[in-house]
Amino acid sequence: MVTVFPFVWLVATSLRASGTIFAFPPVIVPRPATAANFVGVWTTMPFGRFFVNTLYITGVGIGLTLLTSALAGYPLARMRFPGRDAIFYAIVGSLMLPQHVGLILNFVTLMRLHLIDTYAAVYLPGVASIFGIFLLRQAYLVIPQEIEDAARIDGAGEVRLWGQVMLPLVVPALATLAIVEFTGYWNAFLWPLIVLKSPDRYPLAVGLLYLSGLFATNTRYIAAGAVLMTVPVIVVFLCLQRYFLRGIMLGAVK
Amino acid sequence: MALRRTLVAYLFLLPALALLGVFTFYPVVFGTVLSLFEYDVISPPRYVGLTQFRALWTDRYFWIALDNSLKYLLVVPVLQFCSIVLALWVRRPLRGIGWFRAAFYLPVVTSIVVVGLLWRWLLDESGLVNYVLLRAGLIHAPIHWLTNPAIALYAVMFVTLWKGLGYYMVIYLAGLEAIPPGYEEAAALDGAGPLGRLWHVTIPLLRPSILLAGTLSAIAALRVFEEVYVMTGGGPVYSTYTMFYYMFDQAFGSLHLGYAAALGVVLAAVTIVLAVVNFRLLRQGGLTYY
Predict the structure, then answer these.
(1) Which residue, A187, A102, A88, is CA-closest to A141?
(2) pTM of the full structure
(3) Domain total for chain B?
(4) With an 8 Å Cβ cutoff, are B162 and A2 in contact?
(5) A50-206 fold
(6) CA-based nearest residue to A80, from B90, B162, B21, B10
(7) Residue pairs between chains A and B whose CB atoms are closer than 8 Å
(8) Is residue B39 part of a domain?
(9) What are A45-68's pLDDT values in tens digits?
(10) Do B205 and B182 contact (CB within 8 A), yes or no?
(11) What part of B 141-180 touches A (C-beta under 8 Å)?
């Protein structure tokens, strides 16, 4: 009740035809209900632009995260080479580093690379995911040795073995990672707030707050925007709940 | 052959290691070093030793921010208590309990901006919360949740609690599932009531989860920023101004990057001390289960 009601109120507000959000008594079932706010936020505000920006950043971010994790997890799980354990412990150990101190120099680095105010600046620092590397390493570890041996007898080299035999077997782990990363990239707020300067590159999170500041009086539009931003995450979450919670639990026991 | 294998392995690792190096290891290590330098991006860094830490000592805003960040830790025990109760409650194998769990998880996957705006409206002076309380006769005049300096910080804490509940609930559900059912049954046979079982059997066995969730939420509480930024902007009169907020302002507002780094180092030190205390407290007693 306490959890769901605020969402119900938000949807009700976004469907209202008139009035401020501070109506007494509060409106739960808007009459008449209207989609005008949704059309309005899309046409009179740069909301569509923010939506496309978010889709792009999320898409590229997830793609690159899956690729780097799938690559890095493999040798850590199934190859023997000098420095392997040291690298693995360094990667996992970096979880304990005070990341907030790093924010400052990441900004400087991106500035030196002339990447401030680009989409790349938003997703690049998050691409190498410690959680992702760990998750994929675990997935490669449980693949039976016989499968690898059989592929080697067939004459597969290291790269083919990875691409054609191992990779298809870790697809479930990749799916889990993709779902967890999806909410991360979709909702990212602090970092895009720091590195993006021009509003036409804003993702939804930063854009919505920006709009709410510009159009403080038209809260019904902002409410409609908030609903539009939330729907994709909720759909993904409800459809793929099991994988999602598995991801969180794996994250919790790591 | 062995050399080739090593080479291939490192090629596989290259993208991840390069990115981690540039965006994780390098900035944390040199961010710490930067706290000894004065740096404003435009002119080259100038070594000043511990001057900036000494400046912090006499900086009024530093103490305000530190005080608020430490106060924010209050949310940790409340959040953990509520999450444990919730986990115990939704653990029962009832029909449709999955939907319940999902409902509590919704705020976790919702953007902090949506959550912040939503509660900013609900907690407004003429918002829904005040309306309900007035109608129920619990208060006589609307409460200025986010504009009264004495209350604002706690109002933001409530939102942190509301958003985080589902996340910690899942951690505790995982912890509860790891407890073999035999323990509780044995205690029941020995005549322990439901509360006794909970207090003497379940909670002690849940200790590793409490340690994990407590540490995670304490670290998050010390670094709180986004809720504050969206809901109060650090005000009114600095009553919700936190360490992270001050660091953010110094670094990206006034480009005092070295000073911001010094703030970051102090925040990291506080975090480490707290994590150690947390471990000490919860490691005590017989943790024979692990």
Answers:
(1) A88
(2) 0.86
(3) 1
(4) yes
(5) MetI-like fold (1.10.3720)
(6) B10
(7) 223
(8) no
(9) 788 889 999 999 999 999 999 999
(10) no
(11) 162, 165-167, 170-171, 173-174
